[in-house]
Amino acid sequence: MIRALQPGDDVLYPEFHSHVSGSDRRLRFFSAAPLSERQIFRLTRYDPREAVVRAAVGIDCGELYGVGRLHRIQGRQGEFAVMVRSDLKGQGLGGLLLRQVIERAPSIGVTEVVGLVLPENTGMRALAEELGFAIAPDPEESGLLRASLDLEPPDHRRAA
Ligand SMILES: CC(C)(COP(=O)(O)OP(=O)(O)OC[C@H]1O[C@@H](n2cnc3c(N)ncnc32)[C@H](O)[C@@H]1OP(=O)(O)O)[C@@H](O)C(=O)NCCC(=O)NCCS
């Protein structure tokens, strides 16, 4: 089941992260260190007017399998992040979560979706390319790639 992440979902994070490898944590958070309680608290508390956060949850067990998020960062630009349990990768969950947050981007006023990706993150790069993102070196953070997807049709941009 895919649903909005809820504040009470912080209790699901320790089990979720026990199935995430250090290298996958590094690809997502740029650090392999386990998340602190404070970080988990912050990840599960967000303003729904500013962010879309979708959680994949096992129907029978209630376990968290993956999370896709999009936070408005400035103007009409939003930053995405996605992570799936290491033992559940390659089954379509990451793509599903990312598609859902992109579909809901306009509901928080976001028309350009961006994300920072480590160059060695071949899985995320392939997924982003499949969804139509352009990938280029990040102009601000050296050594990182920036994936960006413009959701506004060109006609609309010309009219604005
Ligand atoms: C990146 C990540 C979210 C992808 O999730 P996933 O559930 O494994 O991806 P999916 O199964 O939905 O794959 C979707 C597509 O992505 C591509 N892809 C995903 N992993 C890939 C890999 N390791 N190598 C090549 N392509 C890959 C494929 O094109 C795939 O399409 P297909 O189903 O037609 O083969 C997941 O690997 C992950 O959590 N990685 C660690 C954290 C991370 O890197 N987050 C991104 C930083 S923002």
Q: DSSP helix count?
A: 6
Mean pLDDT across residues: 95
Please tell me the CATH architecture by its name.
3-Layer(aba) Sandwich
Structural class: alpha+beta
The name of the CATH topology is Aminopeptidase
Share of residues in helices:
25-40%
Total DSSP E strands: 7
How does this model look, in words?
This protein is an alpha+beta fold and 160 residues long. The chain has a single domain (2-156), classed as Gcn5-related N-acetyltransferase (GNAT) (Aminopeptidase, 3-Layer(aba) Sandwich), CATH 3.40.630.30. It is built from 6 helices and 7 strands. A 7-stranded mixed sheet has the order 1-2-3-4-5-7-6, sandwiched between helices. Strand 3 and strand 4 form a beta hairpin. The termini are far apart. The model has no long low-confidence stretch (mean pLDDT 95). The protein binds coenzyme A (COA). Coenzyme A binds next to helix 2, strand 4, helix 4, strand 5 and helix 5.
Itemize the secondary structure elements and their pairings:
Elements: E1 2-4, H1 13-18, H2 22-29, H3 37-44, E2 51-57, E3 64-74, E4 77-84, H4 93-104, E5 112-117, H5 122-130, E6 134-137, E7 145-150, H6 154-159
Parallel strand pairs: 4-5
Antiparallel strand pairs: 1-2, 2-3, 3-4, 5-7, 6-7
The protein binds coenzyme A.
Coenzyme A binds at residues 24, 27-28, 81-84, 89-95, 115, 117, 121-124, 126-127, 130.
